[in-house]
Amino acid sequence: MATFYILHSELLNRYYIGHTTESMQERLRKHLSDHRGWTSRAKDWLVVHTETHVDKSMAYRRELEVKGWKSRNRIQLLIGRV
What we know:
By secondary structure, this protein is α+β, with helices and mostly antiparallel strands. 38% of the residues lie in helices and 28% in strands. It has a single domain (2-79), classed as GIY-YIG endonuclease. It contains 3 helices and 3 strands. The chain has a 3-stranded antiparallel sheet, sandwiched between helices. The radius of gyration is 12 Å and the shape is globular.
């Protein structure tokens, strides 16, 4: 099993889109930890959307699909924030 997820930071007013085979609790912990990645810019990331997929490749395809939208409004519709 794999998870497609969307995080949101109020501080940055940005969304982060990703996928993982780890538990969401562990993945969020890593995003919130001190590291050199893009999500280290803020420490207020919240999980606002998840989808479970049968394998990592399907979750990754979904990630690429949503990133391809390049539309904040469409992402907000998906997560129910409009």
